[in-house]
Amino acid sequence: MINARDWTGSQIDWGWPAELFVGVRFLAASLFLVLAASGAVSIPTAGQNEPPDVSEYATHFNRGNELMRDMRFYEAAAEFREAVRLKPESLPAHQALAVAYATTDNLPLAWKEVRLLHQAKVEMPRAFLRLLAGEMPEEEAIKELESIEKELAEAQTEQVHSPAMSTKLGEALFRAGDYTGARQEAERVLQFDADQPDAHLLLGQMQSIDPQAGDQAIAHLKTYLQFASHEPANAKKAGLAYRLLAGIHDRTGDYAQALTAYEEGLKVAPTEAGMWNNAAWIYATVPEESLRNPERALEYARKAVALSEGKGRGHAAYLDTLAQALYLNGRFEEAVETEKEALSLSPDSEFMQGQLKRFEQAKQQAMAAKH
Fold first, then answer.
1. H helices then E strands: how many in the chain?
2. How far apart are CA 318 and CA 327, in angstroms?
3. Who is most buried in 92, 179, 273, 367, counting CB within 10 A?
4. Helices 273-285 and 294-308: crossing angle, nearest 10°?
5. Is the Cα dihedral 57, 60, 66, 71 positive or negative?
6. pLDDT tens across 52-67, in order?
């Protein structure tokens, strides 16, 4: 269970599996709990005499809140997006949408909502902003937003209607945060071409973090891998499919299948630091002794840290994984120093603080045993 810590020191037990959350997704989900508990994203109610648009806004906002509780983050984002459309002046709706976009890893759109809130003199918690900036700096997000808007405009102006063009539009809508439109385009494509790989990947990605849709996501992702091109130009998408597959298996405790998917993914996308890190973490922490591999955990964790080049997405988490692997290999002093470096990048992480204490105790015990 996650004990999501807010920034006033109180604890909220949401009952979400900790395996689901890494980096900004964990903090974004935690933030939603904090905002809801504090009333910042208080759930609106529609009175009998409210205008229809206000009543509809409340319906979408409340539905988004329910979906967040159920960890159906893409659907929640769609509901909050509709609430914002109906009531663009609603700051709680923009706050909720910023969090929902972060939970779906759509960081440019999360930054867009943060910037809108800043203009309205409303700030998100500093810890969220700090981690968001660590995952994607604001300047990078602005450039990415320009690219997203251009891609969407081009896809919407295409006159040729074909499965390939509809898939392109679906992908553009997905990047632009219109998850409902993206899903509809992908489903429309599969009505005409049931084996269109990119449409399967799009649906698989949106279902991959939905606890109620794991089997459907696996089916879509496997179909993508079956029919997708194996050309080097497609390596990034293939790596994504394997990473999503591995993540589903990891969360359901099927660690052997998760490791198989990561190993296959690393063959086609060997520069994906996240996959090296995630595989290393399983090798270092898996409960099944037959799967645990301290040497491989250390090798993979080092590759993840090296590929992240000391910056960017998840680097603190990669350092934490490396520290865990060092600890597992009995290199306690190095584990302590590495965990300190991770904490310097993510000082609010209670998990990393606990890791550091554990590694320091192991170091002290090893030193005492020598005397």
1. 18, 2
2. 14
3. 179
4. 150
5. negative
6. 567 899 999 999 999 9
